[in-house]
Amino acid sequence: MRTGVKDFVERMPAPIRLRELIRTIRTARTQAEEREMIQKECAAIRSSFREEDNTYRCRNVAKLLYMHMLGYPAHFGQLECLKLIASQKFTDKRIGYLGAMLLLDERQDVHLLMTNCIKNDLNHSTQYVQGLALCTLGCMGSSEMCRDLAGEVEKLLKTSNSYLRKKAALCAVHVIRKVPELMEMFLPATKNLLNEKNHGVLHTSVVLLTEMCERSPDMLAHFRKLVPQLVRILKNLIMSGYSPEHDVSGISDPFLQVRILRLLRILGRNDDDSSEAMNDILAQVATNTETSKNVGNAILYETVLTIMDIKSESGLRVLAINILGRFLLNNDKNIRYVALTSLLKTVQTDHNAVQRHRSTIVDCLKDLDVSIKRRAMELSFALVNGNNIRGMMKELLYFLDSCEPEFKADCASGIFLAAEKYAPSKRWHIDTIMRVLTTAGSYVRDDAVPNLIQLITNSVEMHAYTVQRLYKAILGDYSQQPLVQVAAWCIGEYGDLLVSGQCEEEEPIQVTEDEVLDILESVLISNMSTSVTRGYALTAIMKLSTRFSCTVNRIKKVVSIYGSSIDVELQQRAVEYNALFKKYDHMRSALLERMPVMEKVTTNGPTDMAQTNGETEPAPLETKPPPSGPQPTSQANDLLDLLGGNDITPIIPTVPTSKPASAGGELLDLLGDLNLTGAPPSAPASVPQLSQPPFLLDGLSSQPLFNDIASGIPSITAYSKNGLKIEFTFERSNTNPSVTVITIQASNSTDLDMTDFVFQAAVPKTFQLQLLSPSSSIVPAFNTGTITQVIKVLNPQKQQLRMRIKLTYNHKGSAMQDLAEVNNFPPQSWQ
User: Fold this and answer.
1) CA 537, 539, 545, 546: dihedral to nearest 10 degrees?
2) Architecture of domain 716-829
3) Pick from 621, 625, 619, 620: nearest CA to 593
4) pLDDT (tens digit, 9 = 90+) per residue, 275-285?
5) Cα separation, 557 vs 534, whole angstroms
6) Which of 471, 547, 647, 708 is the most exposed place for a label (fewest CB within 10 A)?
C-alpha cells in the first residue's frame, strides 16, 4: 500500500506557482470561496511538506507567506523555513529568512534553532547572504541570540563594505535594545561610522548613536564631544550642490538631516556648551530650508523641536515660533495641526513670542477640521491674559455660539476660568458668564451655577442689574436649565429690587409682583424644567413671600398645591414651606432673609462651596437654608447608613452624587477586601448625634490643624498609568501625632485634558479618613497644571497605613475608571 501512495505522489503534478495562486484567489467572489481555495492549497502544501519535497519547498513556503499576509494560519511552515535557511541556494535562503521574520518571534523556542545558521551566514563569503542574516537578527533576534551573535555583528561594523556596515548598524540597534549591557562593545566602531561618506551608513550610524544616547547617560556625556562633527555633516548637507542620488524635491537627503537634528536635540538638552555649538547651524537650517514642499517643512519642524528642547538663544526661539506661525498659514491641515500642538507646548515658556501670532491662532477657530479647532481653542485659552481678555473673550464667545456640541463644554469651562482670573470688572464678569449660560447652558459643568450665584451675591452693587438681566433672559425660554436655575435663585433673593425698578446700570423695566410669580410658576410647570430647576423655582417663590407684600396669599396657594406633587423632593419642600406658613410663621422672615456675602475658601483650591447642579439638592450655596434644605449632618449620616455602621471610615465624596444609594454601592466596591467594617453591610447604622461630629478630626476645626510640621517625610508616587500620575506628600502634627495629612497632586502628561476627574480613597476600619474637596475636576494636558486634594487620616493605633484608591475621569471621549492599592507609605507617615 505504501508503494502505491509513493507512486501516486510521484505522479502528482507540480504545485502551482505563487503568481497563479494570487490570480486564483483574486477571482474568488465571496469570503467562503476564498477560504475554500486557501484550505485546498494548504492541504496540498502540507502533503508536500510531509513527503519532504525539496524541489518545491521554496515555492510552497512563498505561497504560505502570502496566505499568512491574508490573515490565514501558517504556523505549520515554521520548520520548513529553517530547512530553507540551512540550504546552500541563495533563493532558498531568501525565502527562508523572510519566512522566519514573518512566522517566528522570540516567544517561540523554534527560533533558537536558527542561531547556528545565522552565525554561519554572518561569516559567509557572499555579502547578500550576510545581509539576509543581519536583517533577520535585527528583526526578531531574542536576547539569547543577540548575546551569542553580538561579536559577529561588531566585526561587520568594522568591515569596509558599506552595504554590510549599514545593515550591521541597524542590527546593533536591535542588539542594544535587547541587551543594553552590550552597548560598550559597539562604542569604538560607532565613532568611526561618522567618518563614512556613504549616506546610508551615515544614516544608520546616527540612528545607532541616538539609541545609545537615549539608553545611557554615560554614553550621552561621552558622545557630546561629537557635536562639532555632526554640525559639520549637517552643514555639508545644506551647502552641497545638487546630487541626484540624494535629492528629494530639491533638498539633499532630508532623511539624514532629520535624524541628525533629532540627535542634536538629545545631545544639547540641558547642556550649555553643546547648545551653543549648534546654535549657528540651527539658524542656518531654519533660514535656508525651502518651505514650498513638504520635505522642507519636515526639516523645519524638526529644527523647531530641537531649538525648543536645547538651551538656545532667545532670538533663535523667536525664529522657531515664527516658523510655527508660518505653518499656521499653510494649506495642509496636518502642518497646521502640528504647529498648533507645538505652540501649545511652548506657550508657557515663550508666551510673548506666541502672542504675536494670536490673530492667526484665533482664525484657526473657524477651521473646518475638528482637530485643528480643538487645538486652536486650547491655545487661545492659554494666550488669554489681563491685557487681551476682552478681545479674546469676544472671539471665544463667538466660537461658542457656532461650534459643534462636543466643544461647548470645554469652551464654556475655559471661559469661566479665564473670566474668573482676568475679569476687568464684576459687571463684565457677570455679563460674560450669563452670555455663556444663554448660549451653552446645557453644556456647562455642575459647579457653574453655584459659582455664578456666589459671584452675584458678592457683587452687592450689581444685584438690581443682574436680577433684571436674568429676568429678561428667561422670558419665554427655559431651555437653558442652568441659566433658569440662577435666574430663579436671583429672583427669589432680589425680587424686591426687580419690582422696584432701581437699576442704574441700564434702563429699568416695570415689572409687577404677579408678573414675577407668573414666570416662576411657568418654570414649575414647564416640560423643560428638571426636578432641580423646579426646586429652585419653588424655593424662590417661598422667599418672595417675605419680599412681596401683595401676593402672599397667591404664594401660599402655589406652595400648598405642590404639597401633593409626585416629585418627592418638591412635595417635601412644599410640605415644609406650608408648615412655615402655619406653625412657624413668626420665624419665616428670619429663615428666608437675604443671603449674606459668601467668602471664598481658597485653602484647597478655588472654592470649597457645595457644587450641586444634579438631581438631589435644588438649593445650593445657602449658608442659612430654610428647614427643607439638605443638612450636612444628615448627608454624613446617610453616607454612614450606606456603609453600615459607626466604625466605618467616613469618606466625603469629591463631587455630589445624584443617587446616594448607588454612590454608597460604589464606595463599598471601592473598599473591596480591605475589610473596612466590622459589621455586615446590612447591619443598621447608629446615627451620630449632632453634638458629636461624625469624623474625629472635625474637633480640630477651631484651631490650626498643624503647628510644628514634621519635615523629611519622603513623597511617593501612588499611581502612574495612561499618562495620569498621582503623587502623595505628607505632613504630621506635633499637637496630634495620630493625624497624618496627605496632599495628593494629580498631573496629566498626555496631549488632552482629563475631565470630570474624581478621586476616592478607603482605608481599613482601624483608621479614620476625611477626603476634602479637590482644587478642580480637570487635569490639564502636557503637565501644565495639577489638581490638589487633601486627605486627613487618623491613625490612633500607629498601624502601617494601607489605602485603596479609585479614579474616574473622561479622556479622549471615553470614560475611564481604575482601582489601585497603595502599600508603600513611608514609615515616617504612620509611626
Assistant:
1) -130
2) Sandwich (2.60)
3) 625
4) 899 989 999 88
5) 16
6) 708
